[in-house]
Amino acid sequence: MAKVQQIVPDPVTPEMYLALIEPGTYLDFVNPVPFNGPHGLVERGLLNPEGQLSGRAQSAVRPLTSSDFNRIIDLGLDTSKLLLPRMEEVEPSAGFQDEQAPFEFEQSRDRVSYIGSRIVRDRIFRRIVLRAYDERCAITGLKLINGGGRAEVSAAHIRPVEANGPDIINNGIALSGTAHWMFDRGLISLSDDLEILISRQVNDRESVRSFVNKTGRALPPGRPFEWPNPRFLQWHRENCFKQ
Prior knowledge:
By secondary structure, the chain is α+β, with helices and mostly antiparallel strands.
């Protein structure tokens, strides 16, 4: 899901066009949305008055009705099961409890504005990253669950949002609190093949070495297409890591 910034002619294929995505707007769906769901066709605007698929179904690019758009967003974001942010990610006065809770859209809420919210995007990013890493810290290898049933691990951006890092799985990594702190401050980083690099500025390198998992490499997601992208790792080494 993303916002199209501009449509331009394809420089390679005549009479074809490319959609350029507005930077920072792409967001993975939590769940894939099927063409046909348990309750029938998801994009119901494709049906003609007789209830059959219309010719519009063959169009690669087509407009969506508001109801179809909202339905697809609700299914893709799985709004009833979004994880709450960790306690340190919200204001103390917000009254969040360390547990999962339903997160529902009001019928009249503007989905476009809603999914552009930083809080919402962080929640979705957290869920996608933690699921990919099986709620396990990639640096230590530990999978710790607290008394409330929540994983004691966070979803870290490799290239931060403040530095135009996207909210995509390949720019994310699951880290425990201490590992996240060290990663953000450039005391550890990763090579393109996920070797854990320790800064020479660390005052107790041996303790840090005992802190990382025995392989000496970050534990990646089970599916290779979800692994950290080398260009984001390179950015972290060049802009964050203290050599």
